[in-house]
Amino acid sequence: MGFVMSKEEAAGNGPFLVARELAQILGTEKGQRITRKQINRRLWVYLDHHQLFDPTDVNWIIPDQTFQAVFGPGRHRVRTLDGMKNYFATKAYLEKHLWYIGEVAPTAGGTAEAVAGTAANDEANK
Predict the structure, then answer these.
(1) What are phi and psi of 49, to 5 degrees?
(2) Using CA atoms, how far apart are residues 40 and 110, in angstroms rounded to an integer?
(3) What is d(CA 42, CA 48) in angstroms, rounded to the nearest whole number?
(4) How far apart are CA 124 and CA 114, in angstroms?
(5) By C-alpha distance, which of 34, 84, 39 is closest to 58?
(6) Which of 14, 54, 63, 81 could pair covalently with 35 via S-S, beta carbons 3.0-4.6 A apart?
(7) Are 97 and 18 in contact (CB under 8 A)?
(8) Which letter, b or e, does each residue of 91-113 get, where b requires 16 or more Cβ atoms within 10 Å of its Cβ?
(9) What is the pLDDT of residues 67-110, one digit of tens each?
(10) Residue 13 contacts by C-beta under 8 Å, 6 or more apart in sequence?
């Protein structure tokens, strides 16, 4: 039985289920579906609300502990040199925390419905 994607999913826009670490940043509930556009918007709201922009250069962020669970420690460039929001910089980090509905979650070995809202890299899944 194969996995069938909608046109929106094939374009990489979702809707997605998210792992618990990312859900804490986005403010999503377990099982809630969210599009890539909504994800990007909520990431910027989180960055602004938690004042994670580097005070010496606003093109970079210094992640807090919650943000580090998805993006890792250290500074991260979130804007291009001309000051535009750099969505491509975040995409590589997010891919490990997003699943299409019905897709097998590679880090947990279960379906997206089974792992969304739970720790995909939980000790039980290692």
Answers:
(1) -60, -40
(2) 26
(3) 10
(4) 14
(5) 84
(6) 14
(7) yes
(8) eeebebbbbbbebebebbebbbe
(9) 998 888 999 888 877 667 776 567 777 888 887 766 555 554 44
(10) 35, 36, 37
Residue whose C-alpha is closest to residue 116's, from 34, 2, 7: 34
- Report whether 36 contacts 12 (CB < 8 A): yes
Q: How far apart are the first and last CA of the chain?
A: 27
Report field, pTM of the whole predicted structure over 0.85: no
Report the distance separating Cα 19 and Cα 21, nearest Å.
Answer: 6
Place of tokens 């938690």: 50
Cis peptide before 15 (omega within 30 of 0): yes
Question: In this structure, are residues 60 and 77 in contact, taking their beta carbons and an 8 Å threshold?
Answer: yes
At 54 the three-state DSSP class reads strand
